[in-house]
Please model this.
Amino acid sequence: MKKILIISSNWKFILLGFFLCVYCLYLFQGHERAMSEITGNQAMMIDLRSDYTVNEIRTFFEELKPEGRAVHTYATKVTDSIFPFAYGALFILLSAFLLKNITNSESNWIYLSLFPLLLMVVDFKENFNTLSMLSSYPDLTSEMVDSASKVTSLKGVLVNISMGLPIILGLIWIVKLGLKRMKIS
Model:
């Protein structure tokens, strides 16, 4: 696994992950725009919320009407099944690139770059929960929605950590490069 991380954490794969993320975000905007046209309000997909209640989800699904729920189902089944692989690869490869440049390529610190895998798993669980709520509507239970809301909240925390990791590593790398330059001068 370490060898795969070292070899694949290069600008070509990082750029590919970045462009795939941008493409998925573009698709999400189209899905939200379609849902907003149906509701007449700004519609936000469930997984972009920080938490929610059964009444909020019922109201949201009522406003979406069958057409909007179909759009949300498609977005969750298709686009949001690709997106975790895109951002997961981006975060993992970017972190691995930075870690191999901060440490040496034989260091076990590179395994820290795999943290976003946890986020990916939680995102897939969230997608499953969203699809369950969409297919169960109007027969939503408080337990179902509360459980889904907790997973969505957990995903938010994991997103912040996964995005913060390459930022922190990037700052460490910049400081290391600056110190190296100061020694040379």
